[in-house]
Specification:
alpha/beta, Rossmann fold, 7 helices, 30% strand, binds zinc ion
Length: 243
């Protein structure tokens, strides 16, 4: 049996402590519920650790990152508190081949903007409206086991234009009851690393308890963990002239 995938779920972990509504929904934090979902679906094939902004080295030490195959990222109100050095470390590990899954409001995190190179803005509205996620790439491993679409009854709306570079692969497009659409499941490669952005996950709704959302995140972890033993270096190797 192969070694379990080493997953780290990084969370700023602030809303739960300051907003009783969120604390009630996620008493141990959003990251703990995402972990439960991964273990429910993937069992012993994953080893899941939690990391938070208030941990030593902001939860993003070399030791943590060097022992992570796939990093999940949830942040919202504390993006600016993440140290630039920590962002550098995460970026380097992605280029070396660590998978990165950026969730919901992580679209505005320093690491996502760094890896995308664009503004990453979007339209938004908090009205608890219905979202339908359409699968637009049914052969993609991240869509495995889903139907044509699935619905989340109450969500925060994110709408186009989503200021990202064109995804290498698009897996989901969301439709909202208010009329907007959004590219809600997007894949890129950066260096050797696979990056997936997944939209749902507003902290005041029970999104991470939803079975379809859990399936997508579990599929995404497996997709992002693909390993390659070919070398990768951020600097260009010098080649000696022919003799
Ligand atoms: Zn939100």
């Amino acid at each position: 049996m192969s070694n379990p995938l080493r997953i780290t779920i990084w969370h700023e972990y602030r809303h739960e402590k300051s907003n009783p509504e969120v604390g009630k929904l996620y008493p141990q934090g959003i990251h703990a519920v995402i972990r439960d979902g991964l273990i429910e679906r993937l069992g012993a094939s994953v080893e899941v650790k939690l990391a938070a902004l208030d941990d030593a080295d902001q939860g993003l030490s070399d030791d943590v990152l060097n022992n992570t195959d796939v990093l999940l990222w949830w942040g919202h109100k504390a993006h600016d508190e993440v140290a630039d050095e920590a962002v550098e470390r995460v970026q380097r590990r992605v280029l070396e081949g660590m998978g990165l899954i950026v969730l919901h409001s992580g679209h505005y995190s320093k690491i996502f903007k760094r890896l995308m190179g664009t503004g990453c803005g979007l339209r938004w509205r908090e009205a608890g409206e219905t979202e339908r996620l359409w699968v637009v790439n049914p052969g993609h491993p991240i869509a495995d086991g889903l139907g044509d679409s699935f619905e989340l009854e109450h969500t925060e709306m994110y709408g186009e234009l989503f200021d990202i570079p064109a995804p290498d692969e698009l897996v989901f497009i969301s439709w909202f009851a208010g009329g907007e659409v959004f590219r809600s499941g997007c894949c890129w490669t950066r260096g050797k690393g696979r990056v997936f952005y997944f939209r749902p996950g507003h902290e005041t709704y029970p999104i991470y308890y939803d079975p379809n959302v859990r399936r997508v995140i579990a599929n995404a972890v497996q997709w992002a963990a693909i390993k390659s033993s070919s070398p990768y270096s951020m600097v260009s190797p010098k080649i000696d002239p022919p003799q």
